[in-house]
Design goal:
The protein is α+β, with helices and mostly antiparallel strands and 221 residues long. It has five helices and nine strands; from the N terminus they run H-E-E-H-E-H-E-E-E-E-E-H-H-E. A hairpin with a 2-residue loop joins strand 4 and strand 5. The chain is globular, with a radius of gyration of 18 Å.
């Protein structure tokens, strides 16, 4: 699918996150960026993370600075958070969230964790390989499906609460190839290092890789 700023996002958001997304998204779109996710955490007291991307799926330090500069006044005017908070603007990272149909299409063949808003086949959580995707749904193949059962599950995007790529060797290789095909300037990148590829499936390694993948970040008090 082509890059369209108005393509729907499928992600579960709280009332406050949804309100902030409604403020941020028009600003991001006006700059030619697509909003990926807004998330509020209790890190550093309170942190508002805004994740965005350009038409290549990237977000450089310059992009972070540009968006933060334009979105800060909008947030100041609307004042959706009634306390002091820490603003973080970042790229999606390698093991990125999947929030639009085009994301699932782009990462067919890669592994993802899926959480649904409503149960399908008695479960809300799925982890497997994205086998197919279109504008309305995607198919995920489960590696641990019981014998005699269909490992493929076709799920509606409209039922999606959250989806995220799993850091694997194949995903790292795709990122390397993409980087070689579309290199960035040295001052726009940081080196991503993972000491043990076997640890990629470890939750702590996932967290470290997630942080590394969001190398291009600007933080504002």
């Amino acid at each position: 699918m082509s890059f369209q700023l108005d393509e729907p996002r499928y992600i579960k958001q709280t009332g406050l996150e949804a309100r902030i997304a409604a403020i941020v998204e028009p600003v991001a779109n006006g700059l030619g960026y697509a909003l990926v996710r807004v998330r509020i955490s209790q890190e550093n007291g309170m942190t508002l993370q805004i994740m965005a991307e350009d038409e290549t799926g990237r977000f450089t330090i310059v992009d972070c600075e540009t968006l933060s500069k334009d979105v800060s006044p909008a947030l100041d005017v609307e004042d959706p958070i009634e306390r002091e908070y820490h603003l973080e603007v970042s790229s999606p990272g390698i093991d990125r969230p999947l929030v639009r149909a085009r994301d699932f299409i782009a990462y067919i063949g890669h592994e993802a964790r899926i959480e649904l808003a409503d149960m399908v086949d008695g479960r809300k959580r799925f982890r497997g390989t994205i086998k197919a995707a279109d504008a309305d749904s995607f198919t995920i193949t489960l590696p641990d499906a019981p014998a005699g059962t269909d490992p493929d599950h076709t799920l509606a995007l409209a039922n999606l609460a959250e989806a995220k790529l799993v850091m694997t060797d194949a995903l790292m290789e795709k990122a390397r190839i993409d980087q070689e095909a579309h290199p960035l300037d040295d001052d726009e990148t940081e080196t991503i290092e993972i000491a043990d590829a076997d640890a990629l499936d470890d939750p702590q390694a996932d967290a470290a890789a997630d942080t590394a993948g969001k190398a291009k970040t600007q933080e504002i008090h």
